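Q: Entry one of two.
A:
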Amino acid sequence: MHAYFFSKNPNPEYACHWLVSLAEGFSELGISSYGNRNIALLANGNGFLIKYEEGFSHKEADFLIFGAESYKDNDDMDQVIQQIVKSKNKKCVSIFIDSFDGVRTPGFSKGAQSCDIVLKCHYNKKYKYPKNFYPWQFGVTNRILDSIHPLSFEDKKKQLLLNFRTKHQLRDYMNELLLPIYGQYMEINTTTETFSAEGFGEKDLLYYKQTKGRHFPQYYDRLSESQYCAAYGGVFAIPWGNYSKYTAFIARKINEIIPLFKYDRVRQWDSWRLWEAWTAACCTIHVDFEKYGCVLSVMPTNGVHYIGVNIGQPHKIEEILSDEKRVREIAENGRNFVLEHYTPKVVAQRLLELVSTYRDSH
């Protein structure tokens, strides 16, 4: 079988995380990955993970995959995707990966809606989506799995990584609630990285360029030696005004002045940090996914794979933080959860099952 990845990006070194994860999984399953351009130079320098090959087009593919990043600064993407989808072979299933945050993301566009399947990151069951939307995730790539080497829980520092580089409304809100609690149980490490690759080896420099500055060996080392990691992010939202990110913002601000609604959902909740923290066997702290509507294709369990915070009862997490044995179990369970359900091979297999189900019903 063959997969064909379409990516339109002016940076030839950039290797889209979601495309890379799928292509790595496909490779392990014996599925070839082609594209409209070469993507993801291999660390050994021996070719590309997704390769451009003259004479092979999307018309020969079994799977046709688009990434939402193609919509950045490309006003004609609706027409481009619609034309490509229209010209594919009848057995080919077209897939759009919508990794953007916000309310009206590229998955709602005409181009994405011409595809058979839209894989939606940041999926939240409290929003209404088109019928071809399915929950998806940031997940991990082999780069992340190879870069993180967790110490045993006993050898880790009793510290919480609270070192966000980007401000989010939810992060500020959660920190205000939880900082007094954290201080009773652990040290807090707020060290962040500079946006510099100075001193990087050849392999790490390649990954730094391919991820647009998201690969830092020292950050992965810090994760690997920490017992806890705050992995929350995004925006708390209310059940009103959710037509666009602008109307949602205005509705939230009005609600802060005249509190008519409680926060009942979270947008933009997924992140690389979440999956890196799980992979590093940190006891990972986020919001309660079930309560706030966050959906993954395979769901973790609050209190088993992570600590999920209910902002109405923040002190409930002390029941876990005061029990070191349970903290250790959650940290270990989180890593095992990723290794069992979210390695590139397993994710690719799950997509094949989704494609098979789609074909059976169409």
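Q: Entry two of two.
A:
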Amino acid sequence: METLRKTPVSIKNTTYGIWGFSSMHAKGFTMPMENDPFYELFFIRQGHGICKTKDGDIDLKPNSLLLIEPQQAHQLIDSNKSPLSLYGVCFSPDLVDTDNIIKIFQHKLKTTTLLNNSYAIRLVTESIREIIFEQTERAFGYQSKIQHTLFNMLIDLLRSLTQIVFNDDDPIESSLLYIEQNFYKHLKISELAEDCGLSTRRFTELFKRKTGNTCIKYINEKRLNYAKKRLQNQGDINMVMLDSGFGDISHFYKLFKQHTGLTPKQFLDKAKSIEYNF
């Protein structure tokens, strides 16, 4: 069990500019006003409190995401009845200030954002856990892996914040975003349902009601549209099949023919001879 803390976690200065941590606060947790030279991203797992800044107090509650800028004075103050439990990641401005990602992220996040969908919550928790794991185990290439994980998390969070306006009462919306960004991977309907807090049967019913398609058909259409794009660039049908998320060549041929009226080979030959619009 994680140790309850009465003081903040010590942040280590690393050569690769990133440090991830988790912190479960005890009652009586105290933190001085801090003014750090790096970005700090906090994700509140449990509890309530505020973050004091010169611009005012920021309310913190479960699933809140808070970005603190370099040199921004801040202080976390827990609720006496419900101390905070959080994940955090600190990263150097040198990593991101030359990229527009952090500027867009700051604009979208503003002060704090409540993550109200299972995809974004899982993305943040799994990404920071992976950063903590890599910095702890220090296996070959861990510095690059940590940087890669951070950038993927920021980019995917931006996509989740900009692509869909989520409805708290509609659990299927977060699944649609997750499928949009992961359809080429091995997906299990039972796991998608579990992320939504639904039984597989209830999930499939709600999914079809929202999209007009079964979940499998919806995923396959995403894969087939991607396969058409990849065929024009790759030209290797077996490789495109695997890259698109299919595992059986005969099944891929059957679905592709149903979707386009052409076999993958016919589609590829036509794409080579003329400009094929899709």
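A: Comment on entry two: The first strand starts at residue 4 and ends at 5. The beta strands are 4-5, 18-25, 39-46, 49-53, 56-60, 64-68, 74-78, 85-91, 112-114.
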